[in-house]
Amino acid sequence: MADKKTITIAIMDAPYENARSTTTLRLIDLAAKRGYNINVFAYEGAVLQPFAAQTPHANAVHGRSVEEENHFIPKDAIAALMREAERNGGKIDWVNCGLCVDERGATDAIPGVRRGSPADFWQMAEASDNTLVIATR
Amino acid sequence: MFLVQNGVLPVRPGARSGDLTRLAGAGVRVLADSFSLKERGIDEKRLASGVAAAPLDVVLDALAEGGKVIWH
Fold first, then answer.
1. ipTM strictly over 0.90?
2. Which chain B residue shows the shortest CA-CA distance from A6?
3. Beta pairing class for A37-42 and B51-54
């Protein structure tokens, strides 16, 4: 693909806490649809975005079952985005900050997520067409 | 300038939209994320003067073209 791009995105937000997570996944989705290679460096709470132990739950207050509640699970969305990128000839390289993982006990991530350090972020940015840092405030 | 999430709230014509209109008048392209507008029930046809609705693709286009994109 002549116009194939590589984009690096750094995120810091833990799942369910800020709309920045949604916007980040939307950007990754758009890039995956275009067949781009996408590097993601997850820092601080963002290492919990692909945490494998996430489970959907029912909603007893509203009387809805797990299926009816159809709760959004970030790790499933990320796995779907990885598949989508591959279908379109791209790839998502998701790196979780190792020290951030250790601090949070978030070692069990979905397949396709690897452990790294800020040095990986630097290398990914160097090898990319562009980089976007979606920082917390 | 691309407004997203709650950043789209000031695009409703009113007391807080004047700055955006003045910014657009000064030559800044002011865009508001269509998805964020829809989430908040803001009609794309009733935005402050100088502001236009646009998809998030605009940000990815800018990144792909090598623009210096800064999240604030």
1. yes
2. B64
3. unpaired
Q: What is the C-alpha separation between B71 and B2, in angstroms, rounded?
A: 10
Partner residue facing A5 (CB), from B5, B35, B64: B64
Domain extent listing, chain B: 2-64
CB contact under 8 A, A27 and B56: yes
> CA of A101 to nearest chain B CA: how many angstroms apart?
24
Residue B43's CB is within 10 A of a number of other CB atoms, namely: 10
Q: Do A26 and B35 touch (CB under 8 A)?
A: yes
Residue A73 lies in a domain: yes
**Nearest to A82, CA basis, from A71, A93, A96:** A93
Task: Kindly state whether residue A1 falls inside one of the protein's structural domains.
Answer: no
State the average pLDDT over residues B44-55.
Answer: 96
User: What CATH number corresponds to the domain at position A36?
Assistant: 3.40.1260.10
Contact between chains at B60 and A31 (C-beta distance less than 8 A): yes
CA dist B53 and B36 (Å) reads: 10
Domain count, chain A: 1
Subunit contact B63:A30, Cβ cutoff 8 A? no
Give per-residue pLDDT as tens, A32-82.
Answer: 999 999 999 999 999 999 999 999 999 999 999 999 999 999 999 999 999
Assigned architecture for domain B2-64 = 3-Layer(aba) Sandwich (3.40)
